[in-house]
Design a protein that fits this description.
Layout (H helix, E strand, L loop, with lengths): L1 H6 L4 E6 L15 H16 L3 E6 L7 H6 L4 H25 L4 E5 L8 E2 L2 H9 L3 E5 L9 H12 L3 E6 L4 E2 L11 E2 L1 E3 H6 L7 H9 L4 E5 L5 H6 L6 E4 L1 H7 L1
Parallel strand pairs: 1-2, 1-6, 2-5, 3-4, 3-5, 6-10, 9-11
Antiparallel strand pairs: 7-8, 10-11
């Protein structure tokens, strides 16, 4: 993977964090300050190397629109509530990064001028060029789209080299490793093979955006301390999903 990243002049990244990742397992607290502090410290280390970093954060630790919809709530309303939850997480991460002297900006797809900037593509790119970590909140600003789709969309809009998807599993498997202990983890896999095998790397809309715009994805386990920093700095970690020619360069 390192050869691949070096060849592509790995410089600007989108780090996708789930909201659930900010919560301690088994805890009733929606946000764990120690977890947020660890994430921020690893981002800071990569940021100090000169890397341009943008974050997309989910809101599942507070609210999941699809779950509420399944229980009878009108889907669009449920999704808007989920977007607001992502902003709370964005502000928590921003606060911790600023405490560590990392300059940040939160941009939201839903205007809330007393809390954050509205998303403006050229402004986001300028923040990145000036060394600020940009945190994208409120999803795409539209219901029926996931924060995976937000990550794919923002990566294409700001010209990110890669999407780093932080999860609770250590990569992409040919079957659910929780149900199938013999499942095989891929070091690399092409977009086409992942799609044909329905491996669920991202939701279908997000995956199509990445494939169409040639945005490679690294799926990795963020629960292991240090893994976010390793992913950000290009260590061979997790599973790399991309075009066949790019995967050949990574081997």
């Amino acid at each position: 993977m390192s050869a691949y990243l070096n060849r592509r002049n790995f410089n600007r990244v989108i780090l996708k964090l789930s909201g659930e990742a900010l919560r301690e397992t088994g805890s009733h607290d929606n946000i764990s300050p120690p977890i947020v502090e660890r994430i921020a410290a690893e981002i800071k280390e990569a940021h100090q190397s000169g890397m341009e970093i943008a974050l997309v954060v989910g809101g599942g630790n507070f609210w999941r629109g699809t779950s509420a919809s399944d229980r009878g709530m009108e889907r669009a309303t449920a999704d808007y509530m989920g977007m607001l939850a992502t902003v709370m997480n964005a502000l928590a991460i921003q606060s911790m990064l600023e405490e560590m002297d990392v300059p940040t900006r939160v941009q939201t797809a839903i205007e809330m001028k007393n809390v954050a900037e509205p998303f403006i593509r050229r402004k986001a790119m300028r923040h990145l060029e000036l060394g600020r970590v940009v945190i994208f909140g409120a999803g795409t600003g539209n219901p029926f789209f996931s924060t995976d789709t937000t990550a794919a969309l923002r990566a294409s809009e700001v010209g990110a080299d890669i999407i780093l998807k932080a999860t609770k599993v250590d990569g992409v498997y040919d079957a659910d490793p929780a149900k199938h202990p013999e499942a095989k983890r891929y070091a690399t896999i092409s977009f086409q093979d992942a799609l044909a095998q329905r491996l669920g790397v991202l939701d279908s809309t997000a995956f199509s955006l990445c494939m169409d715009n040639q945005k490679p994805i690294v799926v990795f386990d963020m629960t292991e301390p240090g893994n976010i920093g390793r992913a950000l700095t290009g260590d061979p970690i997790g599973t790399l999903v991309g075009e066949p020619t790019e995967l050949a360069s990574a081997s």
